[in-house]
Amino acid sequence: MDALYYVTIQFRIAVPTNNAISLIFFASACDYHNVMRRIGGMIMAVVLVLGACDKKEPETPSVKPSERLPSFESLTRGARLYQEHCAQCHGPEAQGHPDWQNPQVIAAPPLNGSGNEWKRSKRELLNIIQNGAKRHGEWAMPAWKGRLSNLEIEDIVTWFQALWPTDVYDRWRKANASSSPSA
Ligand code: HEC
To answer: Which terminus of the chain faces fewer neighbouring Cβ atoms within 10 Å, N or C?
Structure first.
């Protein structure tokens, strides 16, 4: 019984290290056939246990393409900076000025996925925020370079992109994946 106990111990060690030599060494020290039969039974038991583990293993949740997983810090920073610097023109919920489609006036467009902003690549969005936009030689959209860091601008984009409806965001993501992989 002592010998068998040793074989059991060795067997457990042997499995993860793939060390079959120590197993045979201990098996030959006692009733070979009896021990081998028991080892056979143990192997079967281990195989069954492993098989059961395989089945029970929970499926790794796959991240769907439409899922956006920005960090909480990035979102809260973006929301705060947006309210501070952008909301007075683009609206507190990034809905845009009511007259944004009127060509007679210069009014800020939506950034919440309901305008044309989602037709721009990430690079284009960052560009216009950094460099602003002029109409008829006048600043329509102020430049933020030097006033906001790249990270702060990224966080603002992250925040307003989180407002985009899933289908809009998916279309934007697909368009960007094919046209400009670096965006
Ligand atoms: C003084 C008002 C004003 C402020 C403040 C302002 N914007 Fe704008 N923004 C505009 C106007 C007006 C346009 C449209 C420019 C044009 O049509 O040429 C615009 C355009 C944009 C666009 C392009 C949208 C599109 O549909 O192509 C983005 C992106 C944008 N702004 C982001 C921001 C962000 C981010 C901030 C804050 C950091 C901000 N804006 C602050 C007035 C403003």
So the answer is: N
Q: Which residues line ligand 1 (CB under 6 A)?
A: 85-86, 88-90, 106, 108-109, 111, 115-117, 120, 125, 128-129, 133, 135, 140-142, 144, 156
Residue nearest to atom 34 of ligand 1 (CA): 86
pLDDT in tens, 62-120: 555 556 788 999 999 999 999 999 999 999 999 999 999 999 999 999 999 999 999 99
Give strand pairing partners of 139: 134
Q: Taking phi first (over 0 means left), then psi (-120 to 50 degrees means alpha), and beta for anything else, what does residue 116 get?
A: alpha
What tokens were used for 83?
A: 């309210």
Environment class of 147 (CB within 10 Å of its CB; exposed 0-12, middle 13-18, buried 19+): exposed
CATH code, residues 65-175: 1.10.760.10
Contact indicator for 66, 46 with CB cutoff of 8 Å? no
